[in-house]
Amino acid sequence: MKYFTKTLGISGRLRQRIEDFKVEEIPIDLPEGDEYTIFWMEKFNSDTNRALKVISDNLHVGVKRLSVAGTKDKRAVTRQRVSAWKIPAEELERINLKYIKVSDFSYSSGRLKLGDSKGNAFVIIIRDLDIEKKELEKRIKSLIDEMKDGVPNYFGVQRFGEVRPITHLVGKAMLKGDFEEAIKIYIANVYPKEPDDAKEARTFLTENWNHDGFKKGLKMFPMRLRYERNVLDYLVKHPVDFVGALRRFPRNIMKMFVNAYQSYIFNEVVQSYIEKGLKTVPLIGFDTTLGKNDQLIKELLKREEIKLEYFILKSMPELSCTGSERKTLLNVKDLKLIEIGEDEFNEGKLYAKISFALPPGSYATVILKEMMKD
Hints:
The protein contains twelve helices and twelve strands. The longest helix is centred in the C-terminal third of the chain and has 25 residues, at about 250-275. About 35% of the residues lie in helices and about 20% in strands.
């Protein structure tokens, strides 16, 4: 990634403690009514989909009765609203979970949908800073000043997978209609930062990609890898139905694969669009018209062997994408240095606490990369 700011970075370490990364949704007003119970969910070191599943299991209801405005970081303390269809607050109040808390109940006539927020507010501690305090403060304030007019609106690493950056590769295979390859990438591609038990299971599948391998592989995959296990369980019963296997993913995850490929194309070209003074970049889909300013996208799609009409997924029409646009620059609100102090978890080092707010669909990691420049 090419850095947008000129000031030297501060390096440092993120998320040494889960509590170092806090996110709170900025809510919108919802219509009055009583069909949906609205509540706040606070989760600790848990992804949003998993937290919703834990709550629904606790209530003995289907997870589809719960909805949110967007997913939040896993390795963080996050707070967001959830809508629950025809589940009284009294039932929700009885939930007693160690890492998931529910509170602040109200009612509405409408469910939360993707994008139903004003964005997110962040409070983040960067630790293990090996810079003299005055210099650290000077750099941070200079970086804040440089970012006040915006930074490139990149999709963050979470979009593609931090440990296994594969979501866009799965999406690309789906767009090409190679659903077997999409499944294989998801469950069999091995990445170095994974735990050994996951590497072993994926390596076995790569070398034994057949019905017998699916059966044995299912026994090897650890219980925590529930998506892989769900897919393999289906393939044991239907060994050549790879579209059906993909449908074992929640719909929002399937959609995320295709969206991740759109995001990959955006990230590859956004810097060039900024340099040309352009305000938006196409998020490509079957209804996108590429003009004279979009030559870079045309060349990239040619190299990738992807055509716009591929975004009509005939075997999975519900995942088809018309396309849209995304701003080239991300406007950061209220970016502040809260404090600098001695880092009790790293002897002789400092920490810096910062806060800021971002609009929906943008990523804190973009701000942090500019600040740290690791």
